[in-house]
Design a protein that fits this description.
The protein has 283 residues and is α+β, with helices and mostly antiparallel strands. The chain is built from ten helices and 13 strands. It has a nine-stranded antiparallel β-sheet. A two-stranded antiparallel sheet has the order 6-7. A hairpin with a 4-residue loop joins strand 4 and strand 5. The longest helix has 16 residues. It is globular.
Length: 283
């Protein structure tokens, strides 16, 4: 995972394609050629320049080469979409104190299909109907009350996974509230979350489009204020009570389970130190 770290920011800048046609939101399409070694190696000098930019998006993980990935850039978050699972690989966002407040409420919003994705490769509302799973936000509506557009975009199915109702209502919601509290306390935090799927047995799906049902969900949080620190959590996708202490994981542990390199824009020494630790008392 670490071998692609220093090339990520150039990848983002070179891959972004913003389309406003037909009312579609911004999209980055990742091709096999773009993830090749030669693509990265030919641009080493430019990468080093970009890494020094003050607008580094620290929340963005390194690019994935072992699964489908279509990067979708929204105003409030970035989603790595997987056309095979019909869910995001991950969703990442920079949550500021100001973004935890706002007048735009979710009560008027509805979930809707993402037209950035080809019709046969995307989830629909019908897939979730009578599935016994909630339409579970990855980047929560509660983090997007600051703007009407970002609130609406949080209801795109490329930001949604099938989620147990009890988890969605209690533990996952509690963690979302905790993250907003941390953003207010520290001024800003960086968040990445997403699904984990079963590695044994048959993969459970819902709907005609066979949307994959996660076995669990991960969330990693980075605070860069003062002495940087990071923390992670994994919650099983079930209704049984799960304590935050039980869900606690280091970022390194979650990287090993997901195959995703988180926070690659940090300097190596800081990344190695904070990703090996997981202590609630430090937060």
């Amino acid at each position: 995972m670490k071998m692609v770290r220093k090339y990520w920011l150039l990848f983002v800048l070179s891959a972004i394609v913003v389309s406003c046609r037909n009312g579609r939101v911004g999209e980055m399409q990742v091709s096999a050629d773009q993830t090749s070694t030669s693509f990265y190696q030919s641009r080493t000098a430019e990468v080093e320049r970009v890494k020094k930019s003050p607008v580094t998006q620290y929340e963005l993980p390194a690019p994935l080469t072992d699964r489908p990935e279509q990067i979708l850039k929204r105003r409030g978050y970035t989603s790595s979409y997987n056309e095979k699972t019909k869910t995001p690989n991950w969703v990442a966002w920079h949550l500021t104190k100001a973004h935890t407040y706002g007048d735009h409420q979710r009560k008027n919003e509805v979930f809707f299909e993402d037209e950035s994705i080809e019709r046969e490769k995307r989830a629909t509302d019908n897939d979730y109907y009578n599935s016994r799973y909630d339409r579970g936000h990855m980047c929560p509506a509660g983090d997007n009350k600051w703007d009407a557009q970002v609130m609406r975009e949080s209801f795109l199915f490329t930001n949604i996974c099938p989620q147990n109702h009890g988890l969605n209502k209690y533990e996952w919601n509690d963690l979302e509230i905790q993250c907003r509290d941390w953003a207010r306390q520290y001024g800003a935090i960086d968040i990445v979350c997403g699904p984990l799927f079963t590695t044994t047995g048959e993969q459970k799906t819902i709907g005609r489009n066979r949307v994959w049902v996660p076995e669990s969900f991960f969330k990693v949080i980075l605070c860069r204020q003062g002495k940087p620190k990071a923390i992670g959590f994994i919650y099983r996708n079930e209704g049984m009570k799960q304590t935050r202490e039980e869900a606690l994981r280091s970022v390194d542990e979650i990287e090993a389970l997901t195959g995703i390199d988180f926070f690659p824009s940090l300097d190596d020494d800081t990344e190695s130190r904070i990703e090996a630790e997981a202590a609630l008392e430090d937060w």
